[in-house]
Every structure is written in structure tokens, then in C-alpha cells.
Amino acid sequence: MDKLLITGGARLSGELRISGAKNAALPILAGALLSDSPVSIGNVPHLRDITTTMELLGRMGVSLTVDEKLNIEIDANTIDSFYAPYELVKTMRASILVLGPLVARFGKADVSLPGGCAIGSRPVNLHLEGLTAMGARIDVKNGYIHATADRLKGCRLVLEQVTVTGTENLMMAATLADGVTILENAAREPEVVDLANFLIAMGAKIHGAGTDVIEIEGVPALSGKDLHYNILPDRIETGTYLIAVAMTGGKVRLKDTCPDLLDAVLLKLREAGALIECGENWIELDMQGRRPKAVSLRTSPYPAFPTDMQAQFTALNSIAEGIGIITETVFENRFMHVQEMQRMGADIRLESNTAIIHGVPKLTGAEVMATDLRASASLVLAGLVAEGQTIVDRIYHIDRGYECIEEKLCQLGAEIRRIPS
Amino acid sequence: MATENGVFGVEERSPGVFFLEGELTFKTANRVLEKTSGLLSTTFGANGAITLDLSGITRADSAGVALMLEWRRQSSAVKRAVHFLNVPQQLQAIARVAGVDAIIQQST
After folding, report:
1. Which residue in A117, A258, A404, A410 is the catalytic one?
2. Which chain B positions have a beta carbon within 8 Å of A54's beta carbon?
3. Does the reported pTM lie above 0.80?
4. What ipTM was predicted for this assembly?
5. How far is CA A311 from the centre of its chain?
6. Which candidate in A89, A176, A239, A403 could, as Cys together with A19 as Cys, close a disulfide (CB 3.0–4.6 Å)?
7. Interchain proximity B99–A67, CB inside 8 Å
8. Is A117 a catalytic residue?
9. Who's near B4: CB < 8 A, 6+ residues apart?
């Protein structure tokens, strides 16, 4: 397995371009199944999960082409299989997102249950309950969801808990249903809005995306003809690089991003002592060589502080001045990076779902192991400020969500390189 | 060497070493395949290997990656090695997105 070797101590500075959001691209690629004509999607990040999704669609017989600008054109009219196998779904839980579109447009789907997840319980029962309420017939057998349906019927769905992929799957399914569907307690994340905008561009009738009540009036068909849709910038990648620069006392300008999506994160970075300026599609952060101050936060669904940034702020707090308290309310096992950071000299105490972090002046480099995507990013950040060398193992996790992370950090002056397996 | 209709051309510059010029795209893929089929089974370079120099490729999309995979497949069928030289960045990037970069890796 590949590893990353990081020599800490460089003050990061420069300019970076932010990639498209993986968490917007994945449902949008699945949503292309709904279109009765080819649709072109741009600003797609080049990540393992994107490749996996393309493989999944390709195995179903969907035609995918990648043009010279790395835009992906998807033509679902060539589909000849409605089967998402365990060997792919187990590597990427988001594969479940093909379920809604397949049932809605083709009336059938056989999708593997995703199985367990390292960071916590993420059941798909809400997806299945929603589709059943819309008239799908669902049978879960031998680890697979077998779904069939005549045309789905619109209805009122109250989601028991906020679920991003649940909202997305049901929203996609409802676009072709007969009648109106109302999703209550819907996820409000910007990636849900991006999916809704994509579907609307194909002719869907959706109101309220970005709020906790989404109304979808079903239409007979969706068409991506002549549509080229660019994926939203990745707010988590943006936040991660901002924190990297803040931790090293540096200065950066991030381009092709969307500051409006990061209110909660920018607020915390300002509290940590960063000077931040924003334009329409750029963010500039300057720590002026200072050590960050510790911040406290509590994760929650959007627009509150994102769980996907919790590990990165844990890393920031580990070398910040003062004590920071981080409470994780979204996933019950999302502190696996803490033990690895403790190996680097971080002073962190865990009490149930809360991490109490006493900032230390210096971390020391160590061999550490990544356990999930954002934890792995936090270990890289810790390595950037640690004394000596840090080796982060199992970086296949990080490759799932960060496009060219070592190249981008090198661009900012970090000493980081990949050690191939 | 002039490309045919300005689109694609192939020229043997030394035994078993072919210089490819033009586009490897959906527009040209079928013609490229026609022009190159047979090369891999009938031409012999050093140690029986074939080298395809792609430095003359001006444009490529995923059809270009598919062609490279097809050349690998054809060479494998006749138990002959095919080496790729000077693979354009664009092709490498598309291959990475498609998850096949290891298969079309260029020779050093």
C-alpha cells in the first residue's frame, strides 16, 4: 500500500485551484441515469471514488466517455444491467445512490447492501422505507436490495434522521414519480442543492433544495440533451487546505472555490487567529506567521459545522495555543485519528463523543496509519507541522477524497512525497 | 510525415518503432484501429517488441485510452510486447480517471 512521507516545518504559501466536490459529483453521476439523452458533466475531481462510480455505471452497460478536458459524458440509454455488485459497493458506500434512479427510470434494481463503515452506523433503511412508501417493492435477501416498481408515486416522506444520501436517493427517485413528493427533514447540504440544480437543468421540478423541506413534482422524463453541468467546488478540500496553511503560519489564495459554503469553517478559522478575505470564487488566508489559537466546536448537519472537517480541526487544535473542545454528534466513531495523533505527541483526551485537546508547541514525526478519509487528511496536516518525518500509511483512504494531495501541498511548499508500495 | 486528411498518420521510423501523429479521439478511433491493426502481429522490433511513440498525438479523449488498451490486448494475443513512449499528459490523466493508468504505463 502507498504511503506519504512528510517532512514537517515548512511554512505553506502560494495559490491553489480547488477541485470539484466529490460528494456532489457522486450523486450527479448516478443522477445521469435518469436522463433519456447523453449528459455532459464537468469539473469532476479525479478520485478513486469517481473511477469506482464510472466502473459501476460501465458494468451496467452505461456508455461513458471522457473528453480531452476530462469532462464525462454519460449515456444511460445503453444500459443493459441493473445490478450493483458487492465487490464495488463495499469499496464505496455511495454506490447506493444508483438505487433511486434505477427504480425510478427502469423499474428495477439489484444493489448490494453497503455493509459496515469504519466511522459509524450508516443504515440505508431510510432509503428503502422511502422507496417503499413511493410504491417500490423491496426485498432484502442475501446481502442485496432487490427493488422493482411500476411508476413510483409521489407522497409525503418524513425522514426520521437527516441523511444526505437518503435525501439524494429519494429526491432522484421522485423526479420521475407520478405526482408530488414532499421530503421533510431533508438534508440541506450544498451538495444536495447541486444535485437538485443538475436535475432541474434536465427538466425536473424541484423546490426547496437547501431547506429541510423539498418538494418534487414528478415529470414523465428528464433530458440532459445539450446540457453541460459543472460540479460545485469542494468545500471540504477548501477547508482542509485552509487549515494546512493556518497550522503552518502561512498564507494562501484558494481559487475556483465558493466561500459561501464555508461560513462555519471560516468563522472558526478567524477565531483561531487567521486573517481571511473572500471574493466571489476565491479565499485568501494569512496567519502572518502566528501560532493558531485553539477553537471549540460541535459538529452537526449543514449549515452547522461539518463533521467532515472535525478531524482537521483536531489537528489544528493539537498545536494551537490553549485548549479546544470538539464534540462529534454526527458519527459515533469518528475519532480514530486521535490515537494516531497521540503517537505524534498530541495531548488529547476523549470523553464519549468529545475530544479535549491541549495544544502542544510541537508534534514529533512518527509512523501513523490512516483509518478513513478525513482522519488520513488530519494526519497529513499533523505531519506538516511535526518535527522530523511522518509516514502516513494506508493512504488509499486519502486518494478517495483528495485530488493530487501531494502535488497540491508541494505547490504550497510542503515537503511531501508518495512512497509507492 | 503528413497525416491522412490531417487527422491521423503512422510512420515506421526504425524496425518496430512507430511514430503516431494526429488525434486519438472518437472521431478517429475506427480509422486508427484500421491503420494499426496487423502492425502488432506482423512487425518485429528488438526482441520482437513494438514501440508506439505518441509524441505526435495532438488531441485525445477516452477513445485514445481505449485504443491503447486494444493495442495491449492485440499484442498480448500474439505474445509480443508493446511499449508506449511519450504518452501525452492528457491521455495519462484520462487513464487515471478511468482507473487504467497502470495498464497503459509508458516505458522508460
Report:
1. A117
2. 97-99
3. yes
4. 0.75
5. 14
6. A403
7. no
8. yes
9. B31, B35
